[in-house]
């Protein structure tokens, strides 16, 4: 039980770090207030667990905006 909790916590931290990197990419690529809004939204969603899907979507959007 404790081991699975630790794994879940590590996984969540990794996800939050990846999402934060995605944010920085977005803000750098877009330089608009919208990127900041996306950052806040993703931060909230990161706590829910959908962030992996959103992360990939936003990375794709970020790549197309560069």
Summed up, what is this model?
This protein has 66 residues and is mainly α. 88% of the residues lie in helices and 0% in strands.
Description:
The chain is mainly α. The protein has one domain. 88% of the residues lie in helices and 0% in strands. It has 3 helices and no strands. The longest helix has 29 residues. The model has no long low-confidence stretch (mean pLDDT 70).
Keywords:
66 residues, 3 helices, mainly alpha
Radius of gyration: 13 Å
Structural class assignment: mainly alpha
Helix proportion range: over 70%
Integer tally of domains: 1
How many strands in all?
0
Give the distance, in angstroms, between the N- and C-terminal Cα atoms. Answer: 44 Å
Run of helices and strands: HHH
Mean pLDDT: 70
Task: Determine the strand fraction and express it as a percent band.
Answer: under 5%
- Low-pLDDT sequence parts: none
Largest sheet entry: none
Which shape, going by the Cα principal axes? elongated
H/I helix tally: 3
Oligomer: single chain
